Amino acid sequence: MKLNKWFMTGLLFTVAAITFILLNAQTVSAASSVYTDKNEVPFSVEPTIKDGTTLVQLRPLVESLGIEVKWNASTKTVTGKKGASSFSLTIGQRTATVNGKQVELAVPGRVVNGHTLVPLRFIGEASGAVVGWYGKTRTISIFSSEYIEILGITRAEAQKRVNAGVTWDTKASANSLRGFYVHSSADLTGYKGCRGMCWDYIYFINDHQLVKKMPDNGWDTVDCAKDTCLSYSMKDGKLIIENDRTYSIEVKEDGLYLDGDYYFKHEPLHRMKLDGKYDASSYVSGNLGVGFSSSNTMIFRPDGTFIDDYWIGVMSSGSDVTGDGSGTSFTIQDESQSAGRYTIINYTILLEYNDGTKEVYMFFRPDRNERMLKIGGRDFLFDDSYDPNEQPSTPPKSTENSAGTVEPYKDLLVTDKIAVKKNIHQELPKSKEETGSIAITLDGYQWAELDISPDYVSSFKGIGDGVIVAITAKYTVNNQSSSDVDLSTLKSVIWVDAGYLQSSPSLSPKVNSVLKAGESAELLAVFIVSAELLEEEWDRYPDLVLSELKTTAGDDALDGAELEFWIFNPYR
Protein backbone atom coordinates (compact mmCIF):
# COMPACT_ATOMS: atom_id res chain seq x y z
CA MET A 1 0.00 0.00 0.00
CA LYS A 2 1.36 3.35 -0.99
CA LEU A 3 1.57 6.10 1.60
CA ASN A 4 -0.01 9.44 0.85
CA LYS A 5 2.50 11.81 -0.73
CA TRP A 6 1.61 14.67 1.56
CA PHE A 7 1.75 12.41 4.63
CA MET A 8 5.26 11.25 3.69
CA THR A 9 6.38 14.80 3.10
CA GLY A 10 5.03 15.93 6.50
CA LEU A 11 6.58 12.94 8.28
CA LEU A 12 9.98 13.59 6.75
CA PHE A 13 9.73 17.28 7.72
CA THR A 14 8.80 16.41 11.31
CA VAL A 15 11.65 13.91 11.68
CA ALA A 16 14.06 16.42 10.23
CA ALA A 17 12.87 19.12 12.63
CA ILE A 18 13.14 16.86 15.69
CA THR A 19 16.61 15.73 14.58
CA PHE A 20 17.69 19.35 14.13
CA ILE A 21 16.40 20.28 17.63
CA LEU A 22 18.12 17.32 19.30
CA LEU A 23 21.39 17.95 17.52
CA ASN A 24 21.42 21.65 18.27
CA ALA A 25 19.84 21.77 21.73
CA GLN A 26 22.11 23.07 24.46
CA THR A 27 19.62 23.27 27.33
CA VAL A 28 17.38 20.43 28.64
CA SER A 29 15.57 19.77 31.90
CA ALA A 30 17.99 18.54 34.59
CA ALA A 31 15.98 17.29 37.57
CA SER A 32 12.44 16.78 38.78
CA SER A 33 13.26 18.13 42.27
CA VAL A 34 16.07 19.54 44.41
CA TYR A 35 16.42 19.02 48.17
CA THR A 36 18.69 20.73 50.69
CA ASP A 37 19.03 18.97 54.03
CA LYS A 38 16.03 16.81 53.01
CA ASN A 39 13.77 19.82 52.34
CA GLU A 40 12.50 20.50 48.81
CA VAL A 41 13.56 23.82 47.28
CA PRO A 42 10.87 25.66 45.26
CA PHE A 43 12.16 27.22 42.00
CA SER A 44 10.67 29.76 39.61
CA VAL A 45 12.99 28.40 36.90
CA GLU A 46 13.57 24.65 36.90
CA PRO A 47 17.16 23.30 36.89
CA THR A 48 18.50 22.78 33.36
CA ILE A 49 21.53 21.28 31.67
CA LYS A 50 23.66 23.43 29.37
CA ASP A 51 26.67 21.94 27.59
CA GLY A 52 26.67 19.06 30.07
CA THR A 53 26.57 21.33 33.15
CA THR A 54 23.60 21.52 35.53
CA LEU A 55 22.40 25.08 36.08
CA VAL A 56 20.15 25.99 39.03
CA GLN A 57 18.34 29.15 40.10
CA LEU A 58 20.76 30.84 42.49
CA ARG A 59 18.72 32.73 45.09
CA PRO A 60 16.29 30.06 46.40
CA LEU A 61 19.03 27.44 46.54
CA VAL A 62 21.68 29.46 48.38
CA GLU A 63 19.10 30.92 50.76
CA SER A 64 18.05 27.36 51.64
CA LEU A 65 21.69 26.87 52.64
CA GLY A 66 21.68 29.91 54.92
CA ILE A 67 23.54 32.24 52.54
CA GLU A 68 22.55 35.90 52.29
CA VAL A 69 22.46 37.06 48.65
CA LYS A 70 22.80 40.55 47.13
CA TRP A 71 22.48 41.61 43.48
CA ASN A 72 24.27 44.55 41.84
CA ALA A 73 22.31 45.37 38.69
CA SER A 74 24.87 47.83 37.30
CA THR A 75 27.73 45.28 37.31
CA LYS A 76 25.49 42.19 36.98
CA THR A 77 27.27 40.74 39.99
CA VAL A 78 25.75 38.53 42.66
CA THR A 79 27.45 38.21 46.08
CA GLY A 80 26.72 35.84 48.94
CA LYS A 81 27.79 35.69 52.58
CA LYS A 82 27.36 33.26 55.48
CA GLY A 83 29.40 33.80 58.61
CA ALA A 84 33.04 34.16 57.58
CA SER A 85 32.45 32.67 54.10
CA SER A 86 31.61 34.67 50.97
CA PHE A 87 31.44 34.42 47.18
CA SER A 88 31.07 36.72 44.17
CA LEU A 89 29.94 35.87 40.65
CA THR A 90 29.44 38.08 37.57
CA ILE A 91 26.98 37.06 34.87
CA GLY A 92 28.69 36.00 31.63
CA GLN A 93 32.13 35.41 33.20
CA ARG A 94 33.77 31.98 33.53
CA THR A 95 35.47 32.81 36.83
CA ALA A 96 34.03 33.49 40.28
CA THR A 97 35.48 34.28 43.69
CA VAL A 98 35.03 32.05 46.76
CA ASN A 99 36.52 33.27 50.05
CA GLY A 100 38.90 35.56 48.16
CA LYS A 101 40.12 32.87 45.72
CA GLN A 102 39.22 32.56 42.05
CA VAL A 103 37.48 29.40 40.82
CA GLU A 104 36.74 28.32 37.23
CA LEU A 105 33.14 27.81 36.10
CA ALA A 106 32.24 25.11 33.58
CA VAL A 107 29.79 27.57 32.00
CA PRO A 108 29.13 31.22 32.90
CA GLY A 109 26.17 32.25 35.01
CA ARG A 110 23.18 33.44 33.01
CA VAL A 111 19.87 35.26 33.46
CA VAL A 112 16.64 33.49 32.41
CA ASN A 113 13.33 35.35 32.69
CA GLY A 114 14.88 37.70 35.22
CA HIS A 115 16.35 34.90 37.38
CA THR A 116 20.05 34.12 37.83
CA LEU A 117 21.16 30.57 37.04
CA VAL A 118 24.61 29.26 37.99
CA PRO A 119 26.41 25.91 37.81
CA LEU A 120 25.27 23.56 40.57
CA ARG A 121 28.85 22.55 41.28
CA PHE A 122 29.69 26.17 42.09
CA ILE A 123 27.03 26.19 44.83
CA GLY A 124 28.78 23.28 46.48
CA GLU A 125 32.15 25.02 46.29
CA ALA A 126 30.77 28.33 47.57
CA SER A 127 28.88 26.86 50.54
CA GLY A 128 30.94 23.83 51.54
CA ALA A 129 27.93 21.61 50.82
CA VAL A 130 27.92 18.07 49.42
CA VAL A 131 25.86 17.59 46.21
CA GLY A 132 24.47 14.31 44.90
CA TRP A 133 22.36 13.00 42.01
CA TYR A 134 19.85 10.14 42.26
CA GLY A 135 18.98 9.05 38.75
CA LYS A 136 16.06 6.79 39.65
CA THR A 137 13.92 9.73 40.77
CA ARG A 138 15.96 12.41 38.94
CA THR A 139 16.57 14.11 42.28
CA ILE A 140 19.37 16.45 43.30
CA SER A 141 20.13 16.18 47.03
CA ILE A 142 22.38 18.56 48.95
CA PHE A 143 23.72 18.36 52.52
CA SER A 144 24.98 21.63 53.98
CA SER A 145 28.12 21.69 56.11
CA GLU A 146 25.93 22.41 59.17
CA TYR A 147 23.70 19.41 58.49
CA ILE A 148 26.72 17.15 58.11
CA GLU A 149 27.84 18.42 61.54
CA ILE A 150 24.39 17.68 62.99
CA LEU A 151 24.40 14.14 61.61
CA GLY A 152 27.91 13.56 62.94
CA ILE A 153 29.11 11.93 59.74
CA THR A 154 32.05 12.38 57.40
CA ARG A 155 31.78 14.15 54.07
CA ALA A 156 32.38 10.78 52.37
CA GLU A 157 29.38 9.30 54.17
CA ALA A 158 27.36 12.43 53.35
CA GLN A 159 28.22 11.95 49.67
CA LYS A 160 26.89 8.37 49.78
CA ARG A 161 23.63 9.53 51.32
CA VAL A 162 22.94 12.38 48.89
CA ASN A 163 23.74 10.04 45.99
CA ALA A 164 20.91 7.83 47.33
CA GLY A 165 18.37 10.67 47.15
CA VAL A 166 17.35 11.37 50.77
CA THR A 167 14.20 13.42 51.53
CA TRP A 168 11.66 14.00 54.30
CA ASP A 169 8.23 12.46 53.81
CA THR A 170 5.68 13.69 56.36
CA LYS A 171 2.47 12.87 54.47
CA ALA A 172 0.00 10.50 56.12
CA SER A 173 -1.95 7.78 54.32
CA ALA A 174 -4.88 5.57 55.24
CA ASN A 175 -2.65 2.85 56.65
CA SER A 176 0.43 4.70 57.85
CA LEU A 177 1.68 7.96 59.36
CA ARG A 178 4.80 10.02 58.83
CA GLY A 179 6.43 12.74 60.88
CA PHE A 180 6.84 14.02 64.43
CA TYR A 181 3.97 14.23 66.96
CA VAL A 182 4.12 15.70 70.49
CA HIS A 183 1.81 15.54 73.53
CA SER A 184 2.46 17.69 76.62
CA SER A 185 0.95 17.70 80.09
CA ALA A 186 1.63 19.73 83.25
CA ASP A 187 3.25 18.13 86.30
CA LEU A 188 2.65 20.86 88.86
CA THR A 189 3.00 18.61 91.91
CA GLY A 190 6.08 16.78 90.66
CA TYR A 191 4.25 13.46 91.06
CA LYS A 192 5.28 12.29 87.59
CA GLY A 193 8.89 13.36 88.07
CA CYS A 194 8.84 15.71 85.06
CA ARG A 195 9.62 18.92 87.05
CA GLY A 196 7.02 21.09 85.38
CA MET A 197 6.04 19.62 82.00
CA CYS A 198 5.86 16.03 80.77
CA TRP A 199 6.50 15.32 77.09
CA ASP A 200 5.45 12.31 75.02
CA TYR A 201 6.99 11.93 71.57
CA ILE A 202 6.16 9.72 68.62
CA TYR A 203 8.17 9.87 65.40
CA PHE A 204 6.81 7.81 62.51
CA ILE A 205 10.00 7.18 60.59
CA ASN A 206 8.48 5.18 57.71
CA ASP A 207 5.37 3.20 56.77
CA HIS A 208 5.84 0.53 59.42
CA GLN A 209 8.28 1.82 62.08
CA LEU A 210 8.19 4.49 64.77
CA VAL A 211 10.39 5.81 67.58
CA LYS A 212 9.12 6.96 71.01
CA LYS A 213 12.35 8.19 72.58
CA MET A 214 13.95 11.22 70.92
CA PRO A 215 17.76 11.25 70.77
CA ASP A 216 19.38 14.26 72.46
CA ASN A 217 20.37 15.64 69.06
CA GLY A 218 17.03 15.18 67.29
CA TRP A 219 15.25 12.91 64.85
CA ASP A 220 17.70 13.58 62.03
CA THR A 221 20.16 11.09 63.51
CA VAL A 222 17.69 8.22 64.05
CA ASP A 223 18.85 5.01 62.37
CA CYS A 224 16.68 1.94 62.86
CA ALA A 225 19.73 -0.25 62.26
CA LYS A 226 21.20 1.18 65.48
CA ASP A 227 18.32 2.73 67.45
CA THR A 228 15.20 1.20 68.99
CA CYS A 229 12.52 1.39 66.33
CA LEU A 230 9.15 -0.28 66.95
CA SER A 231 6.98 -1.78 64.24
CA TYR A 232 3.39 -0.58 64.04
CA SER A 233 0.18 -1.05 62.11
CA MET A 234 -3.14 0.82 61.81
CA LYS A 235 -6.45 -1.02 61.58
CA ASP A 236 -10.08 -0.29 62.48
CA GLY A 237 -9.28 2.97 64.32
CA LYS A 238 -6.45 1.39 66.30
CA LEU A 239 -2.71 2.04 66.37
CA ILE A 240 -0.99 -1.22 67.26
CA ILE A 241 2.62 -0.89 68.40
CA GLU A 242 4.72 -4.01 68.74
CA ASN A 243 5.93 -4.78 72.29
CA ASP A 244 4.18 -1.66 73.56
CA ARG A 245 0.41 -1.24 73.50
CA THR A 246 -2.68 -0.56 71.41
CA TYR A 247 -4.18 2.94 71.17
CA SER A 248 -7.43 4.22 69.78
CA ILE A 249 -6.43 6.67 67.05
CA GLU A 250 -8.11 9.55 65.26
CA VAL A 251 -6.02 11.36 62.65
CA LYS A 252 -6.53 15.11 62.15
CA GLU A 253 -5.02 17.57 59.68
CA ASP A 254 -2.52 19.03 62.17
CA GLY A 255 -2.22 16.17 64.63
CA LEU A 256 -3.86 13.07 66.04
CA TYR A 257 -5.68 11.73 69.10
CA LEU A 258 -4.26 8.69 70.90
CA ASP A 259 -6.61 7.37 73.59
CA GLY A 260 -8.11 10.86 73.76
CA ASP A 261 -4.80 12.71 74.21
CA TYR A 262 -4.00 15.18 71.44
CA TYR A 263 -0.59 15.05 69.76
CA PHE A 264 0.46 18.11 67.72
CA LYS A 265 2.21 17.40 64.44
CA HIS A 266 5.46 19.32 63.97
CA GLU A 267 6.83 19.85 60.48
CA PRO A 268 10.60 20.20 59.96
CA LEU A 269 11.92 23.74 60.58
CA HIS A 270 14.44 24.68 57.94
CA ARG A 271 16.83 27.57 58.66
CA MET A 272 14.34 29.18 61.04
CA LYS A 273 15.46 32.47 62.63
CA LEU A 274 14.70 33.43 66.24
CA ASP A 275 14.51 36.84 67.86
CA GLY A 276 14.43 37.36 71.62
CA LYS A 277 15.47 36.19 75.05
CA TYR A 278 14.45 32.77 76.39
CA ASP A 279 14.93 31.49 79.95
CA ALA A 280 14.99 27.99 81.44
CA SER A 281 15.49 27.17 85.11
CA SER A 282 15.16 24.26 87.50
CA TYR A 283 15.53 23.61 91.21
CA VAL A 284 15.86 20.33 93.11
CA SER A 285 15.75 20.40 96.90
CA GLY A 286 18.07 18.24 98.96
CA ASN A 287 18.65 17.36 102.58
CA LEU A 288 19.48 19.86 105.33
CA GLY A 289 18.05 22.80 103.41
CA VAL A 290 20.55 22.49 100.56
CA GLY A 291 19.21 22.76 97.01
CA PHE A 292 20.65 22.40 93.54
CA SER A 293 19.62 25.12 91.13
CA SER A 294 20.39 25.85 87.51
CA SER A 295 19.45 28.55 85.07
CA ASN A 296 19.99 28.99 81.34
CA THR A 297 19.33 32.14 79.33
CA MET A 298 19.60 32.11 75.55
CA ILE A 299 19.41 35.30 73.49
CA PHE A 300 18.81 34.61 69.79
CA ARG A 301 19.12 37.23 67.06
CA PRO A 302 17.67 37.18 63.52
CA ASP A 303 21.18 37.47 62.05
CA GLY A 304 21.93 33.92 63.22
CA THR A 305 23.97 34.80 66.32
CA PHE A 306 23.25 33.88 69.93
CA ILE A 307 24.43 34.47 73.50
CA ASP A 308 24.41 31.54 75.93
CA ASP A 309 24.49 32.33 79.64
CA TYR A 310 24.43 29.22 81.85
CA TRP A 311 25.05 28.59 85.53
CA ILE A 312 24.54 25.78 87.97
CA GLY A 313 24.86 26.20 91.72
CA VAL A 314 24.49 24.82 95.22
CA MET A 315 22.59 26.93 97.74
CA SER A 316 22.44 26.46 101.51
CA SER A 317 19.95 28.10 103.87
CA GLY A 318 22.61 28.39 106.57
CA SER A 319 20.14 27.49 109.32
CA ASP A 320 21.16 25.16 112.14
CA VAL A 321 17.73 23.53 111.87
CA THR A 322 16.94 23.40 108.15
CA GLY A 323 20.41 24.05 106.74
CA ASP A 324 23.97 22.96 107.38
CA GLY A 325 24.66 25.45 110.16
CA SER A 326 27.22 27.34 108.13
CA GLY A 327 25.38 30.63 108.35
CA THR A 328 26.13 31.19 104.66
CA SER A 329 24.18 31.26 101.44
CA PHE A 330 26.02 30.96 98.16
CA THR A 331 26.08 29.79 94.59
CA ILE A 332 28.84 27.87 92.85
CA GLN A 333 29.03 28.57 89.14
CA ASP A 334 30.84 26.46 86.55
CA GLU A 335 30.20 28.12 83.20
CA SER A 336 30.14 31.69 81.97
CA GLN A 337 28.70 33.68 79.11
CA SER A 338 29.62 32.62 75.60
CA ALA A 339 28.37 33.38 72.13
CA GLY A 340 28.37 32.15 68.57
CA ARG A 341 26.13 31.24 65.62
CA TYR A 342 23.08 28.97 65.56
CA THR A 343 21.47 26.94 62.78
CA ILE A 344 18.07 25.24 62.98
CA ILE A 345 17.58 22.36 60.57
CA ASN A 346 14.50 20.13 60.75
CA TYR A 347 14.26 19.03 64.43
CA THR A 348 17.76 20.01 65.52
CA ILE A 349 19.69 23.13 66.53
CA LEU A 350 23.44 23.47 66.00
CA LEU A 351 25.27 25.90 68.29
CA GLU A 352 28.70 26.92 67.01
CA TYR A 353 30.55 28.84 69.75
CA ASN A 354 33.15 31.49 69.04
CA ASP A 355 35.81 29.39 70.77
CA GLY A 356 35.36 26.64 68.16
CA THR A 357 33.25 24.21 70.20
CA LYS A 358 30.00 22.90 68.75
CA GLU A 359 26.88 21.49 70.39
CA VAL A 360 23.90 19.72 68.81
CA TYR A 361 20.47 19.50 70.49
CA MET A 362 16.95 18.38 69.69
CA PHE A 363 14.81 21.43 68.87
CA PHE A 364 11.15 22.24 68.30
CA ARG A 365 8.49 24.77 69.33
CA PRO A 366 5.95 22.98 71.57
CA ASP A 367 2.44 23.17 70.09
CA ARG A 368 4.04 25.45 67.46
CA ASN A 369 4.07 28.21 70.09
CA GLU A 370 6.64 30.93 69.35
CA ARG A 371 6.85 31.82 73.07
CA MET A 372 8.35 28.46 74.04
CA LEU A 373 11.32 26.46 72.77
CA LYS A 374 12.39 22.92 73.52
CA ILE A 375 16.18 22.71 73.34
CA GLY A 376 17.58 19.36 74.39
CA GLY A 377 15.91 18.44 77.66
CA ARG A 378 15.15 22.03 78.73
CA ASP A 379 12.01 24.14 78.35
CA PHE A 380 12.77 27.77 77.41
CA LEU A 381 10.15 30.49 77.88
CA PHE A 382 10.13 33.84 76.08
CA ASP A 383 11.16 36.79 78.27
CA ASP A 384 8.87 39.77 77.58
CA SER A 385 11.06 42.14 79.60
CA TYR A 386 14.01 41.85 77.23
CA ASP A 387 14.69 44.92 75.09
CA PRO A 388 17.51 44.32 72.57
CA ASN A 389 17.84 48.09 72.02
CA GLU A 390 18.21 49.00 75.70
CA GLN A 391 21.62 50.39 76.59
CA PRO A 392 23.08 49.45 79.99
CA SER A 393 23.52 52.19 82.55
CA THR A 394 27.01 53.60 83.01
CA PRO A 395 28.53 51.87 86.05
CA PRO A 396 30.20 53.95 88.72
CA LYS A 397 33.90 54.60 88.57
CA SER A 398 35.93 52.77 91.16
CA THR A 399 38.14 54.42 93.72
CA GLU A 400 41.02 52.18 94.72
CA ASN A 401 42.16 52.06 98.31
CA SER A 402 45.35 50.74 99.78
CA ALA A 403 44.90 47.14 100.87
CA GLY A 404 44.38 46.71 104.56
CA THR A 405 44.27 50.43 105.41
CA VAL A 406 40.47 50.76 105.67
CA GLU A 407 38.69 49.77 108.85
CA PRO A 408 36.28 46.94 108.06
CA TYR A 409 32.54 47.25 108.58
CA LYS A 410 31.43 45.69 111.87
CA ASP A 411 29.58 42.62 110.64
CA LEU A 412 29.57 39.42 112.72
CA LEU A 413 32.68 38.18 110.95
CA VAL A 414 34.50 40.94 112.82
CA THR A 415 32.57 41.28 116.09
CA ASP A 416 32.30 37.52 116.72
CA LYS A 417 35.90 36.97 115.59
CA ILE A 418 34.84 34.47 112.95
CA ALA A 419 37.54 35.76 110.62
CA VAL A 420 40.10 38.50 110.19
CA LYS A 421 39.14 40.69 107.24
CA LYS A 422 41.84 42.04 104.96
CA ASN A 423 40.12 44.85 103.04
CA ILE A 424 41.25 44.99 99.43
CA HIS A 425 38.74 47.49 98.05
CA GLN A 426 36.16 50.03 99.24
CA GLU A 427 33.59 52.23 97.48
CA LEU A 428 31.51 55.07 98.94
CA PRO A 429 28.94 55.69 96.17
CA LYS A 430 26.18 57.30 98.29
CA SER A 431 23.80 56.32 95.47
CA LYS A 432 20.07 56.51 96.16
CA GLU A 433 17.17 54.56 94.67
CA GLU A 434 13.53 54.87 95.67
CA THR A 435 10.09 53.56 94.85
CA GLY A 436 6.81 54.65 96.34
CA SER A 437 7.57 55.87 99.87
CA ILE A 438 10.70 53.77 100.44
CA ALA A 439 14.18 55.14 99.67
CA ILE A 440 17.39 53.11 99.99
CA THR A 441 20.85 54.66 99.85
CA LEU A 442 23.93 52.53 99.22
CA ASP A 443 26.40 54.26 101.54
CA GLY A 444 29.36 52.04 100.78
CA TYR A 445 30.66 48.52 100.26
CA GLN A 446 33.89 46.66 101.02
CA TRP A 447 35.64 43.63 99.58
CA ALA A 448 37.75 41.67 102.05
CA GLU A 449 39.71 38.43 101.93
CA LEU A 450 39.15 36.29 105.01
CA ASP A 451 41.59 34.65 107.36
CA ILE A 452 39.06 32.30 108.94
CA SER A 453 39.41 31.25 112.59
CA PRO A 454 40.14 27.50 112.98
CA ASP A 455 36.97 27.17 115.06
CA TYR A 456 34.83 28.24 112.07
CA VAL A 457 36.63 26.64 109.12
CA SER A 458 34.03 23.86 108.86
CA SER A 459 31.25 26.46 108.51
CA PHE A 460 32.71 27.60 105.18
CA LYS A 461 33.14 24.13 103.76
CA GLY A 462 31.88 23.88 100.18
CA ILE A 463 32.44 27.48 99.20
CA GLY A 464 35.88 26.78 97.76
CA ASP A 465 39.32 25.49 98.60
CA GLY A 466 41.10 28.77 97.91
CA VAL A 467 40.69 32.32 99.19
CA ILE A 468 37.25 33.18 100.63
CA VAL A 469 35.97 36.73 100.10
CA ALA A 470 33.36 38.72 102.04
CA ILE A 471 31.45 41.52 100.33
CA THR A 472 29.82 43.77 102.92
CA ALA A 473 27.36 46.41 101.74
CA LYS A 474 26.23 49.25 104.04
CA TYR A 475 22.95 50.88 103.15
CA THR A 476 20.25 53.04 104.73
CA VAL A 477 16.52 52.36 104.46
CA ASN A 478 14.31 55.44 104.80
CA ASN A 479 10.64 54.70 105.46
CA GLN A 480 8.75 57.74 104.14
CA SER A 481 5.39 55.93 104.16
CA SER A 482 2.60 55.95 106.72
CA SER A 483 3.05 52.23 107.48
CA ASP A 484 5.63 50.34 109.52
CA VAL A 485 7.82 47.94 107.52
CA ASP A 486 9.44 44.65 108.46
CA LEU A 487 13.17 44.85 107.65
CA SER A 488 13.56 41.08 108.10
CA THR A 489 11.65 40.61 104.82
CA LEU A 490 14.07 42.71 102.76
CA LYS A 491 15.93 40.40 100.37
CA SER A 492 19.45 41.26 99.16
CA VAL A 493 21.23 39.46 96.31
CA ILE A 494 24.08 40.18 93.92
CA TRP A 495 23.23 39.37 90.30
CA VAL A 496 25.80 38.48 87.67
CA ASP A 497 25.24 37.13 84.18
CA ALA A 498 25.91 33.60 85.42
CA GLY A 499 23.40 33.65 88.30
CA TYR A 500 23.03 35.28 91.69
CA LEU A 501 24.53 35.21 95.19
CA GLN A 502 22.31 35.51 98.25
CA SER A 503 23.36 37.40 101.37
CA SER A 504 23.97 35.64 104.69
CA PRO A 505 21.58 37.18 107.27
CA SER A 506 23.29 35.31 110.10
CA LEU A 507 26.44 37.40 109.49
CA SER A 508 24.65 40.77 109.66
CA PRO A 509 24.36 42.71 112.95
CA LYS A 510 21.00 42.40 114.65
CA VAL A 511 18.69 45.41 114.28
CA ASN A 512 15.12 46.13 115.24
CA SER A 513 13.15 44.44 112.45
CA VAL A 514 10.31 46.96 112.66
CA LEU A 515 11.08 50.25 110.94
CA LYS A 516 8.38 52.72 111.89
CA ALA A 517 6.86 55.25 109.54
CA GLY A 518 9.07 58.30 109.09
CA GLU A 519 12.20 56.57 110.46
CA SER A 520 15.39 55.26 108.87
CA ALA A 521 17.82 52.46 109.70
CA GLU A 522 21.36 51.53 108.69
CA LEU A 523 21.88 47.88 107.65
CA LEU A 524 24.73 45.63 106.58
CA ALA A 525 24.40 42.83 104.02
CA VAL A 526 27.19 40.25 103.90
CA PHE A 527 27.94 38.02 100.92
CA ILE A 528 30.42 35.12 100.97
CA VAL A 529 32.05 33.85 97.78
CA SER A 530 35.31 32.28 96.58
CA ALA A 531 37.95 34.46 94.93
CA GLU A 532 38.22 31.90 92.14
CA LEU A 533 34.64 32.55 91.06
CA LEU A 534 35.16 36.31 91.24
CA GLU A 535 38.11 36.00 88.88
CA GLU A 536 36.61 33.55 86.40
CA GLU A 537 32.82 33.84 86.50
CA TRP A 538 31.74 37.27 87.77
CA ASP A 539 31.20 40.43 85.76
CA ARG A 540 33.33 43.48 86.32
CA TYR A 541 30.21 45.33 87.49
CA PRO A 542 27.75 42.94 89.19
CA ASP A 543 24.38 44.23 90.35
CA LEU A 544 23.32 44.53 94.01
CA VAL A 545 19.53 44.13 94.16
CA LEU A 546 17.24 44.83 97.16
CA SER A 547 13.63 43.62 96.94
CA GLU A 548 10.56 42.03 98.58
CA LEU A 549 10.28 44.44 101.53
CA LYS A 550 6.93 44.01 103.32
CA THR A 551 4.93 46.18 105.70
CA THR A 552 4.18 44.74 109.12
CA ALA A 553 0.70 44.06 107.76
CA GLY A 554 2.22 41.90 105.02
CA ASP A 555 1.73 44.30 102.10
CA ASP A 556 4.38 44.96 99.45
CA ALA A 557 6.24 48.10 100.53
CA LEU A 558 8.18 48.41 97.23
CA ASP A 559 5.20 48.17 94.86
CA GLY A 560 6.75 45.13 93.21
CA ALA A 561 9.94 47.01 92.29
CA GLU A 562 13.57 45.98 92.74
CA LEU A 563 16.15 48.60 93.71
CA GLU A 564 19.43 48.06 91.88
CA PHE A 565 22.97 49.36 92.46
CA TRP A 566 26.12 48.81 90.41
CA ILE A 567 29.11 47.57 92.41
CA PHE A 568 32.68 47.09 91.25
CA ASN A 569 34.44 43.70 91.18
CA PRO A 570 38.15 44.34 91.89
CA TYR A 571 39.05 40.80 90.79
CA ARG A 572 38.26 41.53 87.12
Descriptive overview:
- This protein is mainly beta.
- The protein has four domains: about 30-165, Copper amine oxidase-like, N-terminal domain (Copper Amine Oxidase, Chain A, domain 1, 2-Layer Sandwich), CATH 3.30.457.10; about 180-265, no CATH class; about 275-380, Beta Barrel (Lipocalin); about 410-565, Immunoglobulin-like, CATH 2.60.40.
- About 10% of the residues lie in helices and about 45% in strands.
- The strands form eight sheets. An eight-stranded antiparallel beta barrel has the order 15-16-17-18-19-20-21-22.
- The radius of gyration is 33 Å and the shape is elongated.
- It starts with a helix and ends in a 6-residue tail after the last strand.
- Mean pLDDT is about 80; it is low at about 1-30, about 285-290, about 310-335 and about 390-405.
Which properties best describe this structure?
mainly beta, Lipocalin, 8-stranded antiparallel β-barrel, disordered N terminus, 572 residues, 7 helices, Copper Amine Oxidase, Chain A, domain 1, 8-stranded antiparallel beta barrel, 11% helix
Radius of gyration: 33 Å
Q: How would you characterize the largest beta sheet?
A: 8 strands, antiparallel, barrel
Please give the domain count.
4
How many helices does DSSP assign? Answer: 7
Strand residues, percent: 35-45%
Straight-line distance between termini: 104 Å
Q: Which residues form runs of ≥5 with pLDDT under 50? A: 1-28, 285-291, 311-337, 391-404
Task: Please give the order of strands in the largest beta sheet.
Answer: 15-16-17-18-19-20-21-22
Report the CATH C-level class of the largest domain: Mainly Beta
Helical fraction equals 10-25%
User: What's the count of strands?
Assistant: 43
Q: What do we call the CATH topology of the largest domain? A: Immunoglobulin-like
Global geometry: elongated
Helix and strand content put the structural class at: mainly beta
Global mean pLDDT: 80
- The CATH architecture classification of the largest domain is Sandwich
